[in-house]
Amino acid sequence: MTIINSMNMPTYVGLMLTLIVIGIYYIIKYRRVKVPWKILMYFLVVNSIVLMINRIIEEYQSNTHLEKISSNVALISSGIFIASIFVVGIITKVKEKR
């Protein structure tokens, strides 16, 4: 996290926008394919937006109630994203055994 926290705001927002665009590209590209990992692309886009908004709020509205709420939402969405990685991995492993 130190590399991410040491980035200035335009670099960080540019990185997150790049992740969002890549996620949307793969959602559109594989919209007809039924694979378990496609759900990760949806979570990636949502999580990137949440993290970007959280960083902007921390930068410009620090020490407010809004920052605390934003930090909690970012922690919850990141936890859901990490849990979904494990679930998709298990589903993929089970499907490969068949």
Describe the protein in words:
- The chain is mainly alpha-helical.
- It has one domain.
- The protein has four helices and no strands.
- Helix 2 packs antiparallel against helix 3 and helix 3 runs antiparallel to helix 4.
- The longest helix has 33 residues, at 65-97.
- The protein is elongated and about 50 Å long.
- The model has no long low-confidence stretch (mean pLDDT 89).
What keywords describe this structure?
single chain; 98 residues; mainly alpha; 4 helices; 0% strand
Counted beta strands: 0
Poorly predicted runs are none
Distance between the termini: 39 Å
Strand share of the residues? under 5%
Largest sheet data:
none
Order of helices and strands: HHHH
- The Cα radius of gyration reads 16 Å
Quaternary structure state of the chains depicted:
single chain
The percent of residues in helical segments reads over 70%
How many domains? The number is 1
Q: How would you sum up the global shape?
A: elongated
Q: Which whole number gives the mean pLDDT? A: 89
The DSSP helix count reads 4
* Structural class by SSE content: mainly alpha
